[in-house]
Amino acid sequence: MDYFSKKKNNNNDIELARKISRLIDKSKVDEYEIYISSSTDNELEIFEGEVESLSYSDSKGIGIRVFKEKRIGYSYVTSFEENKIIDCIEKAVLNSKITNAEEINGLPLRSEYRYTKEADIQKYIFDEDFFKVNIEKKIELAKNLEKIVKGKDKRISGVDSLNYSDNYSEVTILNSNGFEDSYKNTSCFLFLNIISKDKKDTSTGFSFLYERNPQKLNLEKIAQDAAAKSLMLLGAKKIKSTHSDILLDSLVASQFLGIIASILTADSVQKGKSLFKGKIGEKIFSQNINIFDNGIMKEGFSSKPFDAEGVNKGNTQIFKDGILKTYLYDCYTARKDKTLSTGNAVRASYKSNPGVGISNFYLEPSSDYSFNDILKKIDNGFYVVDIIGLHSGANPITGDISVGAKGLWIKNGNLVFPVKEVTIATDILSFCKKIETIGNDLKFFPSAGFIGSPSLHVKDIAISGI
Amino acid sequence: MIDKETAKKVLNQLLGSGGQFSELFIQKKVSNSLRLDDNKIENASSGFEIGCGLRLIYEDSTYYAYIDSIEESKLLESAKVLRAAINNSNINKSIDLNDSYSNYNVKILKYPDLVIPEVKKQILLKVNEAARNKSDNIFQVTASLSDTQEEILIANSEGVFVKDFYVKIFLAINVIAAKGSEVRTGYKSLAKSMGFELFDEKKPEDVALEAADIALNMLDAINAPIGILPVVIGPGFGGVIFHEACGHGLEADAIIKNASVFKDKLGCKIASDIVTAIDDSTLPYHWGSYKFDGEGSPSQRNILIENGILRNYMLDIKSSKKLKLPLTGNGRRQSFRDIPIPRMSNTFIDKGTEKPDIIISSIKKGIYAKEFSGGQVDPATGDFVFGISEGYLIENGILGNPIKGATLIGNGPEILNKIEAIGNDLDYSPGFCGKNGQSITNEVGQPTIKISAITVGGTGA
């Protein structure tokens, strides 16, 4: 099964980028940027002791951004024959003819930015040991996990999904101002969703794990998490509609934080799509909350030596003691606000133009309260273990949030019975004001970035049930 | 693209180690997208992708690989490496490839690559202008227009050989309105499997006005109520309730994994007598339609629920063999990079007999949910939620105040039995559905329906 085992190839994407740049040089654009991403991926799904599916891919794509008369054009291609690359360049130039010209369009300037990568970060995001694990070992690992989780409790009736995936990728950027660099990255991810049944009820529970190398994956932990989550919700019932305190599990809190993060980009603020527009210097949270976007965090899965435009990533404090300090910027939005990029240019893939986005975005934990300490503070409330429908139930522009929730009811500091099929609803600004206590249990949730929060105790939230 | 002989060679190469099923899926895709935001065309992008996915099945295991190339030598080489995943005695199967047949036939008039970029730009400028002219309260318009032209070739060891061509256009419009401190959004899309003649059929400005109306209507919204209420769900995108609450649980992979509440329910009564639900990939030019699915099976009209009785699941090749049920043409994939899995196409509750205004007037106190922002389901439990983006109170049979921030939460099987009335105004709405990391084109649909009781999650009284 050698094909499925990854090898570190001697990638020559910088050479390829230089070859492309010589082709673009002929096309009379003012500035350009070549983005190449090479990636090998394994995906493995186990079902009832067998490999349900195993897939392997080795792919590469090129995205070309050109600037001509202050207009931007973009095009991408996955074929590397010269004529296909020439077509791609021509399309980018053609596309630049229909976009709007703006004086501030352009590459990051050498006079403003460092143009050398943050060398330290490379060693945290790439692990040589990644390549020591062959596919047979990965299959064994995933099969083991199924056995471990099924052995946790006899009420666990099955595994809905058990997926292992990993990725080795290399990103290269070359621009016409002289930026030329690349970085590589390894990661692996386990996702587990299990089903528990008793005579009357069915419940599900998921958990996930990520590491830079598969040897570090702690199977016992993910199995325990998923089992505990699913079992604690068995026999859940609906409750009467009410207003009460809620205790958001750190993973749920991270998802709420993700909604807030999405409107802290300068792009959304400048276009009037953010409730935080014009609120720099205002106290948004009632508590002294600190929120950071740290693109160079050792353990951060969104850490990179440079961002999607080649600007060094940094550590930006967005909220200090509950006060909004800054937004997140790429070069374009920074020029608009007459400031500098915070290194927050991101791209979903080589298929997309850079835009502004978060990296490792987190709410700083307190040192004062463990999860249990917070629990003890609540006389009557709802511990939210999981939410669904966040994508459709939260509108970051209007600020409305209404999502489905399941969890456990809290009475006099104790978890008393499981609850399901209720919604919790609030709006972003009220939510910020109602955060009462911050836990010490920071956990990260990988989504569009890497978002982290401790458990949060929030006062007076509307719960809808029967 | 490649010819039958080359396809045969690759398929045989894949089976060389004793695999039971081999398949190749070639895709060549040209796409363009254009985005308007903040009164500017801020992004124009084009892409070209070509590649081949190779699939090999042995017993219950699927092995998959793809390459960004369709050169014969590379395909044969990849096939050889992929087949090393299994090690069985070599049984040589003779493969005879035959052109597959489908009833689905459409004619494309204006191919996207023949429409000059300036024309596409004008469409977005008209959208922007129409929405902004509607009211001074409208302060932001974001619109994107994307088109794709795709060539597909599918061949498998059971003799399927399909060559196909698709053209798709998608226009999405987001409008933001503000009055005082209230900010509201409106979203509408127009998408079909056809060329730019789409805009001869429907003016982009009209779609813009619909999006603007939603945002403007919602400006005076009050907080949504909480608790259990009767709810009338509007036609078109309201069908997302069926898609989430029921459709995903009828996709056969969920049945096989014992992760669906509809397992072992074929022939059983699972919904009110008045409910008939259909998945139909043959509706001409619809967003979720196709000639062949991602495995080369012809598109079909499948009755899922007939007068409340569960008649069929949605299957792909693998699940059809496992469950010993006929293929339904629902094996779909996002691209050559993905393994096909059972997916919906155009899925809707079929039309009933009642007039929509009579349905609304039958409710003393309740909610009218006109538009939704989407939803999510846990198929194993049937629990779902969906967010209302345009909704109104119903008081004494009449539409009242608009409501904001409302979500509906419930359980699929329970809700199906609470559908009390179905209107005669069947309509459809296009979108994208994500599952197992694959996003595909989908249409949802329904007439106006009434659900006797469902939990409404707002913040009001």
Explained architecture:
- The complex is a heterodimer of chains A (466) and B (461).
- By secondary structure, chain A is of the alpha+beta class.
- Chain A is built from eleven helices and 20 strands.
- Chain A has a six-stranded antiparallel sheet with strand order 3-2-1-4-5-6. In chain A, strands 10-9-8-13-19-18 form a six-stranded mixed sheet, covered by helices on one side. Chain A has a five-stranded mixed barrel with strand order 7-14-15-16-20.
- In chain A, a hairpin with a 2-residue loop joins β15 and β16 (414-427).
- The termini of chain A are far apart.
- The relative contact order of chain A is 0.13.
- Chain B has two domains: 112-149 and 167-220, 2-Layer Sandwich (PmbA/TldD fold), CATH 3.30.2290; 223-457, no CATH class.
- Chains A and B meet through β2, β3, α2, β4 and β6 of A and β2, β3, α3, β5 and β7 of B.
- β3 (71-77) of chain A pairs parallel with β2 of chain B, so a sheet runs across the interface.
Provide a short characterization of the protein structure.
The complex is a heterodimer of chains A (466) and B (461). Chain A is an alpha+beta fold and 466 residues long.
